[in-house]
UniProtKB/TrEMBL annotation:
Transmembrane residue ranges: 7-30, 42-61, 68-88, 108-127
UniProt name for this protein: Uncharacterized protein
Keywords linked to the UniProt accession: Membrane, Transmembrane, Transmembrane helix
Source organism superkingdom: Bacteria
Length: 142
């Protein structure tokens, strides 16, 4: 019977390829129309890093320190992107919101939610890297 806890390697290859493509755009290797990119290059690079490292994590063994490090770095990159959106994101890019609040109040709510998400990611990163540094969780208990 097939192990349902691990994804097929082809999913990892696709994630790695998408991540490298996004990183290529961020570093100017892949040509794009500058009018279509609405974030600083480092934010785009962080997004590419998330995809690439997710691909690496899928392709490594379940209890590998490489997988744990990739996961921790993914959470850090997601927190950095969320923090950027919270602090410097264009208010015109926020949509949805609470119907009875003004558009300005909805932007404040969106920034708070993104900021809380970023802080949560930073806390998970700190917890994960401390476990990785101590060598915890590398091997399952029998």
């Amino acid at each position: 019977m097939r192990d349902l806890t691990s994804a097929p390697r082809w999913i990892g290859v696709i994630c790695l390829g998408v991540g490298l493509f996004i990183l290529g755009i961020a570093f100017g290797v892949v040509p794009t129309d500058p009018e279509t990119v609405h974030v600083p290059p480092w934010v785009l690079a962080a997004c590419g890093l998330v995809f690439a490292l997710c691909g690496v994590a899928v392709m490594t063994p379940e209890h590998s320190p490489i997988r744990a490090a990739a996961g921790a770095t993914v959470v850090l990159a997601m927190g950095l992107v969320g923090a950027w959106v919270s602090l410097w994101g264009d208010a015109g890019g926020f949509s949805g919101g609470v119907p009875f609040l003004s558009p300005e109040a909805n932007v404040v709510v969106a920034r708070i939610v993104f900021g809380f998400g970023a802080l949560t990611c930073f806390a998970i990163f700190a917890w994960g890297t401390s476990r990785l540094a101590r060598g915890s969780g590398e091997q399952p208990e029998a």
